[in-house]
Amino acid sequence: MHSENKRDFDAVADQWDQEPRRLKLAQDVVAAMRDSLPLNPGMDALDYGCGSGLVTLGLHPFVGHITGADSSKGMLEVLNKKIQAQAVHNVTTLPLDLEHQQLEGSFDLIVSSMTLHHVQDVTALVATLSNALKPGGWLALADLETEDGRFHDDPTGVLHHGFSREFLTGEFARNGLTDVAVVTAASIEKKGPDGNPRRYPVLLCVGRK
């Protein structure tokens, strides 16, 4: 990620969960993942770009263990406080450079929500995540469907204006994933420049190694 276009997530970490629309989006994505994936207590999962852990904690009751990975120390501190406050025993955190650091270990499930548009080389990222799956493991990536660039009020750190269904399924197939499917996980409503509401779909692409 280019330093001149990188958002300071540490600075907004403490206020991140105060946006109702953000909470609703995480709930919708978790619901779509539950519908689309064979979640089970034997799964060792990773939430890549977990932020404050909204999706991480939404999934933890349905898997054996889940690691929340993020490059923002501030976001991980918020998640760690939640883990302690809720006495959750199957969630851990991992500081991880989302752009340059390779993943170690292998997982039964890797999920990510609203992270792809902050990563410069998405093709390389999908390959990295696919390689970190165990045979039979699942990859599930959620992000905005291609939009006109008006979704983000502050474009800092936004490197892509969403992704098409064809791009996502193509990258999954390129990395040998099967049972690839795309669903609309959520729809975010925001007022456009003309004051009228606009809907921005969030896609969830899943595939099995």
Textual characterization of the structure:
This protein has one domain (3-208): Vaccinia Virus protein VP39 (Rossmann fold), CATH 3.40.50. A seven-stranded mixed β-sheet has the order 3-2-1-4-5-7-6. It contains six helices and seven strands. By secondary structure, it is of the alpha/beta class. It is globular.
**How far is it from the N-terminal to the C-terminal residue, by CA?**
27 Å
Q: CATH architecture, please? A: 3-Layer(aba) Sandwich
Helix fraction, binned, reads 25-40%
Secondary-structure element pattern, one letter each = HHEHEHEEHEHEE
**Structural category:** alpha/beta
CATH uppermost class: Alpha Beta
Q: Supply the CATH superfamily name.
A: Vaccinia Virus protein VP39
Oligomer: single chain
Number of domains: 1
Strand content: 25-35%
Low-confidence stretches: none
Spatial strand order of the main sheet: 3-2-1-4-5-7-6
The average pLDDT score comes to: 90
The major pleated sheet works out as: 7 strands, mixed
> What's the total count of β strands?
7
Radius of gyration of CA atoms, rounded to a whole number: 16 Å
Which of globular, elongated, flat, extended, rod-shaped describes the shape?
A: globular
And the CATH topology?
Rossmann fold
The number of distinct helices, counting runs of at least 4 residues, comes to 6
